[in-house]
Design a protein that fits this description.
Elements lengths: L2 H5 L2 H60 L10 H17 L32 H8 L4 H13 L4 H12 L1
Amino acid sequence: MTRSAESIDPPVAIRAAVDVLVFAPLGLGAKLVEDAPDAVDRARRELSNARFIGRLAVDQGIKQIRSRFEPSESSPTQSANNGDVSDDFEPLVRAGEIRGSNDLMTRESVRSDLVAGDLALPDYDTLPAIDIVGKLATLDDVSRDAIERYELANRQRRTVLGKLAQLAEG
């Protein structure tokens, strides 16, 4: 026999096997039960953010398709096919429009005396858009309006402005 086989005490081996086969699964189950609510909440938030960003992407794609099939003002004629495709997309665009998306203000048209330090979210300028989007639902209307004015005057991130519009609708 080898030296390692001689040094293993049978009661120690049995205790180790019981620990691995009985107590480890029990501890893992207890840990899962303890952490499950936080994991579910985190997964729901991530799913909500993913749906929101997906809706923004689809809305933007529909707008781009619509703009490609609409006749330009400089074109004197319009083919019947282009009109049909544009008409097909009209209800989709209307149903998915973001509040004021056709009238989005430019940086030049928005004058804001707000600075990032005045906003309800600390270190606003250092936060990525996805973090801001996740926190907007917890803010009151006044704070969201301030963030909207600041965002329009500065970075104009579509994800943030879109989520603000979604929250304003209902």
